[in-house]
Amino acid sequence: MKRRNTKRYNIRTLKEPDKRDNLIEALKESFEANMPSDDQTEEECWKTIETNMKVTTEQALGYIRHEARKPWMTKEILNRTEDRRIAKLENNDIKYNQINKDIRNKIRQAKE
């Protein structure tokens, strides 16, 4: 099963009242400034509303930053896992196995 690299909004910030109020105000301003006109089709109106929502929400909330789940996972290990993934996609078994051994060694060292 493939994992999607989808960006998710950081909705946890909505628990803070000031951030929530900032988002509401930003959305109101965005809709007032970019209201769909009557001569637009339904699809064009929807696209206008959708882009208003996306842009404003992205600015107000931002995206969730994925960080290593374990304290011993370093950026070097994460970079090597990306290299390993690329080697697997290229069907380069020798390179894949070499990178995999390197990752295991680095993980053992980091855990110590």
**Spans of 5+ residues with little confidence (pLDDT < 50)?**
none
Number of domains: 2
Q: Let me know the largest β-sheet.
A: none
The structure class reads mainly alpha
Mean pLDDT: 87
Tally of DSSP β-strands: 0
Rg result? 22 Å
Put simply, the count of helices is 4
Overall geometry comes to: elongated
Percent in strands:
under 5%
SSE string, helices as H and strands as E: HHHH
Task: Determine the N-to-C terminus distance.
Answer: 33 Å
Percent range for helical residues?
A: 55-70%
Structure write-up:
The protein has 112 residues and is mainly alpha-helical. It folds into 2 domains: 11-61, no CATH class; 75-111, no CATH class. Helix content is 63%, strand content 0%. Helix 1 (17-33) runs antiparallel to helix 2 (42-61) and helix 3 (75-89) runs antiparallel to helix 4.
Characteristics of this structure?
2 domains
Record the SSE blueprint.
Layout: H1 17-33, H2 42-61, H3 75-89, H4 93-111
Summary of the model, kept short:
With 112 residues, this protein is mostly helical.
